[in-house]
Amino acid sequence: MLLIRLSDWLTRSLMVLGAVWAFALCFLILADIVCRAIGTPLSGTKELVANSVVIIVFMQVGYAIRSGSMLRATFVVDMLPPAVQRLLFILCLAAGAGIFFFLLHAGITPALRSLANGEFDGEGALRVPVWPARFAIIIGAGLAGLNYLILLLAEILGFRLANLEL
């Protein structure tokens, strides 16, 4: 199905981009540590890292959901009958989709307001725009909600989806 392939491609792409971003961020943090050791810290590192962590998390959450690697504790659920396990799984998928679609809906206005007002984080030499993090939240939440919805429909209709892998 085209929607599933498009979602999978976007999910993989954002996960890889987020991983590359996290890798590059390691070098920024290392450079700041070295510069602090010689008495000249890099300005704005804290703001860049704080906003980047939010962006990276929301770039990768869709992949965690679609690949089946989202954290879950099933030690109690495993003791229940299979029919109850399936029902709980369906309810959890529906709740996950609902939560992320709610987050998408709730984040649109703040993201647009942040872009329109030119909201920045930090003071002094480096001011980091906040709107990229806010838009990453709504894009990531939308993709996460879509992936939960895909898994939910596949479970209800009895389709077997291959786990998303690189």
TrEMBL record:
GO molecular function terms noted in the UniProt entry: transmembrane transporter activity
GO BP: C4-dicarboxylate transport
InterPro entries linked to this entry: DctQ (IPR055348), TRAP_DctQ (IPR007387)
Location of the Tripartite ATP-independent periplasmic transporters DctQ component domain: 25-153
Membrane topology: Multi-pass membrane protein
Subcellular location per the Swiss-Prot or TrEMBL entry: Cell inner membrane
Chief location: membrane
Domain of life: Bacteria
GO (cellular component) term, any one: plasma membrane
Pfam families reported in the protein's UniProt record: DctQ (PF04290)
Keyword terms: Cell inner membrane, Cell membrane, Membrane, Transmembrane, Transmembrane helix, Transport
Membrane-crossing residue ranges in chain numbering: 47-66, 87-108, 135-159
Subunit structure: The complex comprises the extracytoplasmic solute receptor protein and the two transmembrane proteins.
Role description: Part of the tripartite ATP-independent periplasmic (TRAP) transport system.
Family: Belongs to the TRAP transporter small permease family.
Protein name as catalogued: TRAP transporter small permease protein
Originating organism: Pseudooceanicola algae
Lineage, uppermost ranks: Bacteria, Pseudomonadati, Pseudomonadota, Alphaproteobacteria, Rhodobacterales
